[in-house]
C-alpha cells in the first residue's frame, strides 16, 4: 500500500481573481536573476514548466503551440526570410521553429536574461534545441530594445517573444519600440508580437493593434489555443510593410514538421470570433 | 480602511492533476437533485457560475461561446430548420440561440433534471430567457434517451448539450444513442454534440468521431475558446445525413445577434490545428 504523501500544487493567479492550479512533483530550479524570479517545476499534467516572476512561460506539453504559431505565420508570409531576429525568447523555442525554414541564413536571439537561456538548455533541451551550436544562430545576451535601436534595415522578420508587460518586458509593448522595429526591418519586412489574452487583456490588445496600425501599412490579429496561458486563448499581432498573410497562396507553402500549424490554417486563424474582432475595428467599441 | 476578509476560492480539478481556481463572493444556491449536485456561485471574474457535480457548466461571462457555437453551425447548415430538439441544456442557453432563427416552429427541450431548469431561471435569467413563455418552446423534464427512442423522423436538428460523460450523461456519449438520433432526425437532419477538450479528452473525441462517422454520411469536428472549460479549448462534433457545413454559402447566411459566431467563421472553425485534426483521421494515429 502506498503511503499518503504531501501534495504540492502550483497556483498562478492569472488575474487577481482567477487562475490555474497544477500538481507538481518537485521544484527543479529556483533562482533570482538580475531581471526576474526564475523557477522550473516538474508538473504531472504538463511536464516541465518554466515560470518567470510567478507566470507560466512555457511547458513541455503545450509549448509547440506558442512557438509554432508566433513563428510560421510570419515566416510563411515573407517570401524569402533570410535574416530573422527574436527579441526575448530565451527558451529557444522560436529559434527552433525558425530553423525549420531553409531560406534562413541568420537567426539572432536578443535575450536580456542569460539565466533563461541556461535554465532552458538544462531543463528544456527539446525546446532549446536550436541554441546548441547551429552556425546560423547568433545568441546575444542583450537588451532587445538597444539591439533594435542599433540595427537599421537589417531584418526580414522580427519576432517579439516577450513575457507579460510587467518587469523587464514593459518597453516591448510601447509604440516607440514598434517604430524602432519598423526601422530595423528591411523594406518588405514583417514583425509579430505575442499580445496576451482576448478574454483578459482587451485594452492591451486594442492599444497594440492601434499602435501597429499607425506604424505599418498592414496589421493583422490572430489567435491560438494555449491551455497554460490565461484563458487558454492567446493573441498575436502582425505588423508588415508589404506582405499580407492573407495574400499568401497556401497551396504553395512548404510542408513543415509541426503539431499545431498547418498551411491550411495560415489564413483561417485570422477569421476572429466577434468579441475578438471588435478589438481590431476602429468603428466598433 | 477596509478590514481584511476571508477569501473564498472555488477550485475545480478538471483532471486529477490540473484545474482552475476562481475567487467567489458567495454561494447563491446548493442542492442535491435526484440526479446530481447543483451549485450556483457568484464569482468575481466570470459572474454567476453554474456547477454540476463539481464541474463548471456555464458562467455569465463566457456562456455565449458555448451556446452560440453548439447552435448556429448546425442551424445555419440546415436550409430550413423548423423542428429542433435539445437534449440536456436545462440552462436554456441553446434554446435562446435556436429562437434567433426565424424558421423555427418548435424547439423541444428534453432535460432530465428539472432542478437545473429552475435554478437557471432564477440565477441566470439572461441565459434562460428562452424558457419564459415563448410559444415555440416545449419544455420537457424528461430522459433525452427515452425521448429520442420515442420519436422517429421528427426533427431537423438535434443538439446534445450534455454534461461530462459521467453520472446522468454517460448514455449520451454512446453509439446506440447516436443511432437513435439518426432515426429521430428527418431524412436531411443534422445533429451536433459537445465533445470535450482536444487537450484532455483525446480518446473520447476520437471514439465519438468514429462512432458518428459510422452512423452518418457526413461527420465534422470544430472547436471554440471557452475559458472556464478544461484547457480553454472545446470541441463539437457534427453528424449529418445530407447537409455539409462546409458546403454552405456563407455569403447567404443571415445576420444574427451574436458575440462569438460570425458567418465568416462558419467554415474556418473546421480547419483544425494538426494535433486536433489527428483525432478525425483514421490513417493517422
Describe the structure.
- Two copies of one chain form a homodimer.
- Chain A is of the alpha/beta class and 285 residues long.
- Chain A has two domains: 8-56, Spermidine Synthase, Chain: A, domain 2, CATH 2.30.140; 63-280, Vaccinia Virus protein VP39 (Rossmann fold, 3-Layer(aba) Sandwich).
- The first copy, chain A, is built from seven helices and twelve strands.
- Chain A has helices at residues 63-77, 93-98, 114-123, 144-150, 175-184, 202-215, 274-277; strands spanning 8-15, 18-32, 37-43, 47-52, 55-59, 83-88, 106-111, 137-141, 155-161, 185-194, 218-225, 233-240.
- A seven-stranded mixed beta sheet of chain A has the order 8-7-6-9-10-12-11, sandwiched between helices.
- The longest helix of chain A is centred in the first third of the chain and has 15 residues, at 63-77.
- Chain A is globular, with a radius of gyration of 18 Å.
- The mean pLDDT of chain A is 96.
- Chains A and B meet through strand 2, strand 11 and helix 7 of A and strand 2, strand 11 and helix 7 of B.
- Chains A, B: Its EC number is 2.5.1.16.
Key terms:
spermidine biosynthesis (chains A, B); Spermidine Synthase, Chain: A, domain 2; Rossmann fold; alpha/beta; seven-stranded mixed β-sheet; homodimer; 2 domains; 7 helices; 12 strands; 285 residues
Give the topology.
The structure is a homodimer of 285-residue chains.
Chain A: E1 8-15, E2 18-32, E3 37-43, E4 47-52, E5 55-59, H1 63-77, E6 83-88, H2 93-98, E7 106-111, H3 114-123, E8 137-141, H4 144-150, E9 155-161, H5 175-184, E10 185-194, H6 202-215, E11 218-225, E12 233-240, H7 274-277
Parallel strand pairs in A: 6-7, 6-9, 7-8, 9-10
Antiparallel strand pairs in A: 1-2, 2-3, 3-4, 4-5, 10-12, 11-12
Helix pairs in contact in A: 4-5, 5-6
Binding site for spermidine (chains A, B): 67, 91, 161-164
Pathway (chains A, B): Amine and polyamine biosynthesis; spermidine biosynthesis; spermidine from putrescine: step 1/1
Family (chains A, B): Belongs to the spermidine/spermine synthase family.
Amino acid at each position: 500500500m502506498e503511503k499518503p504523501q504531501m501534495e504540492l500544487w502550483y497556483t498562478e493567479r492569472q488575474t487577481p481573481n482567477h487562475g490555474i492550479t497544477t500538481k507538481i512533483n518537485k521544484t527543479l530550479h529556483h533562482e533570482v536573476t538580475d531581471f526576474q524570479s526564475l523557477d522550473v517545476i516538474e508538473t504531472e499534467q504538463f511536464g516541465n514548466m518554466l515560470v518567470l516572476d510567478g507566470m507560466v512561460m512555457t511547458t513541455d506539453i503545450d509549448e509547440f503551440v506558442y512557438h509554432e504559431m508566433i513563428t510560421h505565420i510570419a515566416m510563411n508570409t515573407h517570401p524569402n526570410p533570410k535574416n530573422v531576429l527574436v527579441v526575448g525568447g530565451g527558451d529557444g523555442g522560436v529559434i527552433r521553429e525558425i530553423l525549420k525554414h531553409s531560406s534562413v541564413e541568420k537567426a539572432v536571439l536578443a535575450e536580456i536574461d542569460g539565466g533563461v537561456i541556461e535554465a532552458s538548455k538544462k531543463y528544456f533541451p527539446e525546446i532549446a534545441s536550436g541554441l546548441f551550436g547551429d552556425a546560423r544562430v547568433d545568441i546575444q545576451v542583450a537588451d532587445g530594445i538597444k539591439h533594435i535601436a542599433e540595427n537599421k534595415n537589417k531584418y526580414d522578420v522580427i519576432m517579439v517573444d516577450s513575457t507579460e508587460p510587467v518587469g523587464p518586458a514593459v518597453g516591448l509593448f510601447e509604440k516607440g519600440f514598434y517604430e524602432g522595429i519598423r526601422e530595423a526591418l528591411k523594406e518588405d519586412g514583417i514583425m509579430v508580437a505575442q499580445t496576451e489574452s482576448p478574454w483578459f487583456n482587451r485594452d492591451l490588445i486594442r492599444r497594440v493593434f492601434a499602435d501597429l496600425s499607425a506604424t505599418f501599412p498592414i496589421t493583422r490579429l490572430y489567435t491560438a489555443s494555449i491551455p497554460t496561458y490565461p484563458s487558454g486563448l492567446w493573441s498575436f499581432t502582425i505588423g508588415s510593410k508589404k506582405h499580407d498573410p492573407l495574400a499568401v497562396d497556401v497551396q504553395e507553402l512548404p510542408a513543415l514538421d509541426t503539431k499545431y500549424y498547418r498551411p491550411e490554417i495560415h489564413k483561417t486563424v485570422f477569421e476572429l470570433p466577434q468579441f475578438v474582432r471588435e478589438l481590431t475595428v476602429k468603428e466598433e467599441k
